[in-house]
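DM from R.C. (forwarded with permission)

"hey, sorry to bug you on a friday — could you get me a structure for this? deadline for the figure draft is monday and I only need the backbone to look sensible"
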Amino acid sequence: MVNARNWWMYLGLAGFLGYVPGFPGELRLLNLFFLTPLLRAAISSAAGRRQPPAERAPALPLPPSAGGAALFLARALAAQALMLVVPSMLRQIVRQYLGQTAARRRAIPDAAAYQQRARYRLPFNGQWYVYNGGVTQATSHSWDVIGQRYAYDFVMVDDQRRRWRTDGRAPADYLCYDQPILAPADGEVVAVVDGVRDAPGVGTGWIDVFTPHFPGNAVTIRHAEGEYSFLAHLKPGSVCVRPGERVRRGQEIGRCGSSGHSTEPHLHFHVQDCADFFAAASLPVAFDGVAVGGAPAQDGVYVVRHTLVQHSQHSEGSA
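My reply, with the result:
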C-alpha cells in the first residue's frame, strides 16, 4: 500500500528505470526526489532557529574544517546527488528501500508500548553526548526510516560542545575517535563488517559515496529473541570479535571511528528486531546505570538528544 506521506520515495524509485536498457535515460532525474528528506531537514532547521530560545535545541558548533554552515550543507547535498550515479551505492539504496518497506508493518509507534527482553547499558564508558536520537517523533534520529527510528548518534564533547581538539580536519582530532566501544549486553555476535575506510573529508559535510557498506564497519549482536544491537562507523581494523563469538556486557568489540556514511567520528547505535540491518525495524531501548547531565545514575532510562550521558558501574552486578 502506497504511503502518501512518502510519495517522493516512489518517484525517486521510478528513476532507477532510467538505468535499464530500453527506458529513457531522462527518468534518472526522478532520483533527485531522494533529496527530499534533506530539504525537509534544512527547512526544519531554519524553522527551529525562529523558535523562542526556550524551545530551541542548543546549537552545536561546526569544526573549522567545515568552512561554514553554507558550504557544509552544499557538500552534503552534492554527496547525496552523487550517490544516485554510483552503482554500488544504488544497490545499497534499493536494498534498504525494499527492506524498510517490508519493515514498516513491524514499526513500533510508541516506546512505552514495547517491553524489551534484555537489559542494556550504554555501549561505552565515560561521559558522551547524545548528538542525535530519542524515542519520540520530535527527538528521533530518523522517524520515517523504520530501521533507525530509535537509533542514537553518540560523540564526545568539551565544555563548549566542540567535538574536536584543533581544527577537525583528521579523524584522530576528534575526542571520541579510537575510544573503546562495548557490548551493551551479553549476547552472540551474528555479523561483523570490517575493513571499510574512514570517510575522507572529515568535518566538511562530504560523505563517502564509494563506500561498500554505508554503515561502515559494524558489529551486530543477538541479545534475546528479536533483539539485536547494531554498532556502526567503527574504526577500520579495530573490530575484535567474530561471528559466533559470545560476548559479555561491557566487553570491548571495537573502536569508535568514522567509516561509511559519516561526516565525523561518532558511534551509531540502535537495537533492531532482526539481524539484517537493511530489513530491520528499530526498537526503543531503555539503558541501565545512566547518569544524565551529571544527575545520579538510574536504570531504565530513555536517553534523548542534546544531553550528556555517563555510564555508572553501580548496576553491573545485576546485569
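R.C.: lifesaver. Residues 1-7, 47-56 have pLDDT under 50 and may be disordered.
me: no worries. The helical segments are 7-14, 36-49, 69-83, 87-103.
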